[in-house]
Amino acid sequence: MNHVLKAVSMAAILAAGMATAASSGTFRQAHDYGFGDKSSLDPSSPGRVQAITEKVMNRLVSPDLDGKPAADLALEWSANSDATEWTFKLRDGVMFHDGSLLDAADVLYTFERILDPDGTSPARSALKMIETVTAVDDMTVKMSLSTPFADMPLQLMDYRMRIIPDGSGDTIGNTGIGTGPFKVESFEADGTTVLVANPDYYLGAPKIDRMEIIAISEGQARTQAFLGGQIDMYRYITAQERVLLDRSDKYNVQVIPTGNWRGLVFRTDVEPFSDPRVRKAVRLAVDRQKIVDLVYGGGAVVACDTPVEPNDQYRADLKCPQDIAQAKALLAEAGFADGIDIDIHVSTLEPSWGNLAVVYQEQAAAAGIRVNVVQAPSDGYWNSIWMQKDVSATRWNERPADQALHEIYLSTAKWNESYYKDLAFDELLATARRELDFDKRKALYVQAQEHLLETAGTLIPVHVTKIVGVNTRVSNLDEVKREAIRWHLVEVD
Hints:
This protein is an alpha+beta fold. The chain has helices spanning 3-16, 18-21, 50-56, 104-115, 152-155, 172-175, 219-227, 239-246, 276-284, 288-296, 324-333, 353-364, 381-384, 401-409, 423-434, 438-455; strands at residues 26-31, 61-63, 69-71, 74-79, 85-90, 130-137, 140-145, 182-186, 192-197, 210-215, 233-234, 251-266, 300-302, 340-346, 369-375, 391-396, 458-471, 474-475, 491-492.
C-alpha cells in the first residue's frame, strides 16, 4: 500500500474517533517516513525515526531550555588540565524499559557502536577525537581523546547519541528500548507507532498515557492532518499557513529561532561542480534576503553558506551579497561562457523545497545558470535522491559549530553530502579542536567558515525560524528547540 495513502487513511480513522480521543490522554504526531523501509529505532542508524527516539531514549548530556549542556544520564562531568580526558559520573537507579539498570557497560557499548568504523552511525565523525571509552567503575565512564577538546559536553548533546542497553544492537532497531519517558508498545514505520508512558522514568511519570507517531510522507498531507485535528503538533508550518492558525482558537503557534537550515547541495565530485569556480558561481547567483522574504515569509535569517547557527559562540560574521557579474565571470573563466544547465531534485518531504528551487531558478537565470526543477518521490528521498543526484535539496537540524563543520564538510565524514574534500579545511578543524584558548579557537572556526564561503559546494541560504503549530488541547509543550523539549511534562485535555 502506498505509504502516503496508508498514512492519510489512518488519519481518517483517527478523525472518526476524535470525540473519545480528546480525553484519552493520547498525543499524536506525524513523521515523514523519509528513510522509507530503512526506517529504524536504532539511534545510530542513518534511518532513525527521530520523532520516536527523542521520546524513548536519553543522552549523557542534554540541552537545557537555553540550549546549554545539562545533566541527563550523566549527573556530572570533569576534564583533566589539557581536556584530553573527560570523566562522567552516571545517575544512579535509572531503569531501562526492559527492567535492567543503567551502568557503565551500557555507555561503553553505545559509544563503541557509534565509533565503530565498520558501523553505520553518521555521528561517528563528530566523535573521532575519542580514542577509548573505559569504565572507571560501574557508574563512572572516562573518555580519552586523541587531542585536547574543551567543548566535549556540547558534542554529547547530539540527538543521535542516545544510550541503549549493553548488547542490544541486533534488536534495538525494532524495540527502541531506552530510559526515556515513553516506551515502544508497537513499531510500524510506515503506519502508526504506539508509545506508552514509562512509569519508572527518572524525572517522574509522564503526564499523558500514550503517544501515536503516524507516518505521513507528503508535507501537504501532514499539514492537512494537523488542520483536521488528526495530529496534535506540526513542526513545519509555513508563514502563509500561520495566518490560518492565528485566526483560529483551535491552535497555538510557537515561533522558535533555530539553527536549522534549508539549502541545495552541488556535488563537488562531479562536473561542472568539481571546479571551485563553478561552485562559487552557483552560490553568488543567489539573493538570500529575497529567499528569506519570498520562500519563508521573513521567518528565517541569512546564513551565508555556513551551517553554524546564528547564536553559536563560533559563528562567523560573513557577508554574501548576490553578485551576478562575478558569477558570470567565474563561469566563463571555468570554460562555461554560455552558462550551465542543471537539474535540481526536490520533493514535498520538506514543504519549502519546491519554492526554494523555483526562486533559485529565477535568480540564477541572470547568471546563465539554467535550472530544471525535478520533483522526486518523498518516500525514501534520503536513500535514493540525496547524495545520489548531482544537485538536490537538503535540510539539517542545528548542531554545535565543531560538530556541524565536521559532520558536513570533513573529507572523511559519512554525511559529507557534497563530497567536499579540502585538506586545508580539514587541518583548520583539527587545529581548532586542539586549541584550548577560546579566542584562538574561535578564530580558527571563523576561518573555516570563511573558507567554506569561497570553496564549498553546499548552498545554505537560510537558517529557519521554526513555526510550530500545536492543538490547544495540548499544554506544557516547551517552546524551545525540539532537542530540549521535556516530553514527560506534556499534557492533553
